[in-house]
Amino acid sequence: MELNIIELSRLQFAATALYHFLFVPLTLGLSVIVAIMETVYVMTGRPIWRQMTKFWGTLFGINFVLGVATGLTMEFQFGMNWSYYSQYVGDIFGAPLAIEGLMAFFLEATFVGLFFFGWDKLSARAHLIVTWLVAIGSNMSALWILIANGWMQNPVGAVFNPQTMRMEMTSFYDVVFNETAQAKFVHTVSAGYVTAAVFVLGVSAWYLLKNRHVDLAKRSIAIAASFGLAASLSVVVLGDESGYGVSHSQKMKMAAIEGMWETQPAPASFTLFGFPDQQARETHYAIHIPYVMGLIGTRSLTTEIPGIDQLVAQAEVRIRSGLIAYDALMNVRANRGKMTDADKAAFENHSADLGFALLLKRYTDDPRTATPEQIVKAANDTVPTVWPLFWAFRLMVVLGFAFIGVMIWFFYMVSFRKMQFPRYALWIAVLIIPAPWIAAELGWIVAEFGRQPWTVDGVLPTALSASSLSVTDLLLTLAGFVLLYTALFVVEMGLMLKYIRKGPHIDVHETENWQKQHSARLAPATLPAAE
C-alpha cells in the first residue's frame, strides 16, 4: 500500500473532523446555557428570561443542524476510507458509534423539534423538561463518540482472536468505563461549555457596545460569566487529569508533548518554552520549571517519566516480541485455523505486542523477513512529529488560563460592580469569540496527531488501516469535502450573524401578552354551575 494513500486518507479525515468540531463545542455548551435560562424563566415567570431562551435557542438550533450534517460524513468515512480498520476492530468500535447515531437521530432530533415547535403546545414546566432533555441528549451523544475515540487511545476490554483474525470485545463495561474515554469526555464537554460561555459573553458585549437589547445582554453576561468561570476552571482541572491518564496509557505521546528526549531524574521538570529538534533529538533554548511535569504525570516526586529514546528502545523490544506472535498467527492461517499447543502458547505469551510487529508491514510484506535495520526504523516510527504537539499543547494551555482570567474579571464586575463594563473590556469579549474554537482544535490535534503511528494505540498501525483507493479518488473527495464544508461553514456564519444582528424577534411586552394568552389556553375550562 502506498504511503501517499495513507497520508491523503488521514488528511481527508482530519479535514472533515476539524470542520465538524467547529460546530460541536457550541452545541454542547449552548444547550446547557439555554436550559439554565429557561429554568430561571420557569422559576421567576419573568418574560425577559423566556425571550433570552428563545433567542439563544435559535442560535443553538442553527449550529445543531449543521453539526449533525457534518458529523454524518465522518461515520461513513470509516467504511469508505478505513475499511481494514473497520473490519479489524469494528466489533468494538461499532457499538458506541451505533448508540451515538441512535441518540443523535432519535433522541436529540425528537426533543429539538419539541423545543422549537412546542412553545404553544406544552406547559412551561413540560417545555423546560424538553429543553433539559435536549441538553442531556447532546452531551450523551458526545459521550458515546468519545468512548469510541477513547478506546482507540487506550484499547481495553478487547482481545485479538487468532481464529477470526479480528479484535473482539470481551467486556462492554471496560470499554464504556475506560478511564481514557471518561477523562476525554469530561474534558471535551467542559471545553464546549467554555466555548458557549465565551460566545454568549462576546455577543452580549457587542449588544452593549451598540446599546441594543441591554436587559437581555446584561442578564446573558451574568449567566455566561458564572457558567464560564466554573467551566474554565474545570477544563484546567480535568485537563490535568487527562494528562495523568496519558502518562500511563500513552507514554510516547506524553514524552512528545513535553519534548522529553531522554528520561529525566524524578520528578521531571516541565518545559515551558523551547524549540524541539527531532533530528538532533534535543529541545533548543529550553526553559524548565522544576518538578511540575513529574507532579502532573505521576502525582509523585519519585516516579520517572520515560523519555523518547528510552521508549524507542522499548518499542524495538516489543517489535521482536510481536514477531513471535505474528509467526504463530501465520502458522494458524497456514493450518486453516488449527492452532497447535506450541503456537497457542507462543501467541498467548506475545499477543500484546502483535501490533508492534505489524509496524514492519510498512517495509516488508512479511514482517518475519525484516532486517535489523528495518526493525530499528519501525521502532523509530513510534515517535510522532514532536514540534506540532509541543506547541499545540502549550498554546492550548495559555488560552485555557486566559479564559479563566476573562471569566473572573466579568464575574467580579457582574457581582460587585453592578455590570458597569468599560468599553475596552466589551471589545475584548467580542474579539476573543474565536479563541475557544482555536483551543478546541488544538486539543484534538494533540489527541489525534499524538497517537500516530497508530489508529488503535499499540494494536493497529495507521499504515495498515486505510482502504485501497486511488490517489485520484482521494484528491477528488478531499476537494469535494473541503468545498462542501466550507460552504456549510459560510452558511452557518451568515445565519448566525443575521440572527445576531436581528436580535430577539419579539420584545418583552409581546412576550407578556403571549404568556397571558398561553396560560389561559392551558387553564382547565370552567364548567357552568348546575341549576
TrEMBL record:
The keyword Heme is assigned to this record:
yes
Q: Does the keyword Cytoplasm apply?
A: no
A single GO BP = aerobic electron transport chain
- Name the domain of life this protein comes from: Bacteria
Transmembrane regions listed in the UniProt entry = 20-43, 55-72, 92-117, 129-152, 190-209, 221-239, 391-412, 424-447, 474-495
Matching entries from Pfam families are given as: Cyt_bd_oxida_I
What's the main place this protein lives?
membrane
Localization in the cell:
Cell inner membrane
Q: What UniProt keywords apply to this chain's record, in alphabetical order?
A: Cell inner membrane, Cell membrane, Electron transport, Heme, Iron, Membrane, Metal-binding, Transmembrane, Transmembrane helix, Transport
GO MF term list: electron transfer activity; heme binding; metal ion binding; oxidoreductase activity, acting on diphenols and related substances as donors, oxygen as acceptor
Q: What GO cellular-component annotations does this UniProt entry give?
A: cytochrome complex; plasma membrane
Q: Which InterPro entries match?
A: Cyt-d_ubiquinol_oxidase_su_1
The membrane topology noted for this protein in its Swiss-Prot or TrEMBL record is: Multi-pass membrane protein
The family classification in the record reads: Belongs to the cytochrome ubiquinol oxidase subunit 1 family.
Task: From the Swiss-Prot or TrEMBL record, give the protein name.
Answer: Cytochrome d terminal oxidase subunit 1
Source species of the chain: Rhizobium oryziradicis
